[in-house]
Fold:
Amino acid sequence: MSVIDAALPLATLTKQVVIGPDALTHLAEVVTTHFGDAAVVVVADDITWGVAGERVDAALRATGRPVLDALRVPGNPTRVQATAENVELVKAFLEPLDVAAIAVGSGTINDLVKRASSLLGRRYMVVATASSMDGYVASGAPITVNGYKKNLPCDAPIALVADSEVLGSAPAIMRASGYGDLLGKIPSGACWLIADRLGIEAIDWTLWPFLQEPFRHALARAGEVAAGDPDATAELGQALILSGLTIQAYNSSRVGSGAEHIMSHYWEMLHLGGDWDPPLSHGLKVGLGTVAIAALYERILARDLSTLDVEARLASWPTEQEREAYVRSVFPHPDLVDEAVAQSLAKHVDAEAMRARLNLAKEVWPTLSQELREQLQPASEFADQLRVLAAPTHPRDVGLTLADMRAAYLAAQTIRNRYTVLDFAYETGIFDECLDELFAADGYWGSQGD
Ligand SMILES: [Zn+2]
Structure:
């Protein structure tokens, strides 16, 4: 039994995953299994139509089932975005039709069809065209609403088909993106360990084994993924799908998304690389976020927090008003800061609760720090892996300065009500010191220059 087959029973919504060589030859039977002889329609963009959409459409017509004319989401296909406007466009197309949608695409098309189908109370399935991120079978879709990226609730696809040859022939930048997203599972696991040991959010130990081991094997094949090897790219895709299934089973992206993802979401809010063609992808931002967060972990792990002076920290623990003023100072973006304030206050606790948390942190630090060391690897190693795929590893690779990077750490800590290492650094009072070290002349970032 494959690791995916072992994980599928834990997932609540996705019933079947077919990934590997010749997966597309099983498409018609997968469609029949889940939709009977109902009418179907392909939703793609101009690129994914050429990559697989046309074949999917033709293969289904050949079975004699009703297949309506496909929707190709308009616009420059390398720039189609997961926005509320595009969700409306797909929903308006599907609404009058009595059909099940088959999304053919990488992340964006899937997110649009996922959200639109869910709003219509319908199930859909997806044919993946790239191992570019882990959201295919996740419940929920990251959609940009009024400039603020939100993970909107919606049901995962009932089935997924991914053909190795199609995945391997996806553009190198998409394979690099999937690799970056998968790399982020390592620091995100570390963030969950902290949240667990501090009694904030317990690790689901049923899901944990599906997350960590298979990922490391797939990540060890960076060179093959870079070369477009179908088997290595399919293994990368399988690990990403596994991540999606565990997100579905846990009903939250916590299982695969920690501080590195929050860094990525911050850059997304600022539309970093949004005007590139193709736009700077989620996974490439997560890859850079992974390097940044690993570097922060190194500074934290250089400290013995079992000797933390809790009362000294509490002497400057902010009230809600002070916390709000702080958020406004580190995230001075007029359109977005109110949401950041709301997210920050939702995770703000009073001094009494913070005393208990910090005392617990001191107590568990000897074990926790060891667990974190075992979970993580040095920032420079993450960067080396990403470089094999020509993915960004330094702020300059995405048009940012070191000052922008420092600002990103501070702002990222404020924008999401999810406990990560960013909160841990802030709450223990070592955040600024750690950043000073990272950006000092001999620090991880400082030594590399702008
Ligand atoms: Zn991701």
